[in-house]
Amino acid sequence: MPHIIGKGAPAPLKCPTEENIKAALMKFDSNGDQRLSTEELKIAFLNLGALVPGFRAWRGMKFADGDGDGFVDENELPKLIKYVSSLGYTIKA
User: Fold this and answer.
1) Which of 2, 10, 26, 37 has a beta carbon 3.0–4.6 Å from 20's, enabling a disulfide?
2) What residues does the EF-hand domain cover (predicted)?
3) For residue 34, what are the contacts with CB-CB under 8 A and spacing of at least 6?
């Protein structure tokens, strides 16, 4: 299963695909409801090595949560993936 590596880690051999990033993010779906809460995103960003994971989770939620329900669901994941990629985080398969 792919996993997220932080900015300071060696670059992966392959370019991450959207599916790899999605799989890596969804492993933080702790309750298995197929959507990510702010708390789950906070843990994901903590594992990414973010200096302020709560802020990154809040920004990620603002960026990706199109319907404002407080969760990033399957339809909103592409926006979250874009946000994570824009921060320079990569995925190692």
Assistant:
1) 2
2) 16-51
3) 26, 73, 74
88 and 5 Cβ atoms separated by less than 8 Å: no
Domain with residue 87: its CATH number is 1.10.238.10
Q: What is the DSSP string of 36-81?
A: EEHHHHHHHHHHHT-SSHHHHHHHHHHHH-TT-SSEE-TTTHHHHH
Q: In this structure, how many other beta carbons lie within 10 angstroms of the beta carbon of residue 58?
A: 15
Which of 1-5, 48-52, 56-60, 82-86 shows the lowest per-residue confidence on average (mean pLDDT)? 1-5
Owning domain of residue 83: 3-92
Closest CA to 75 of 31, 24, 34, 21: 34
Domain count, the chain: 1
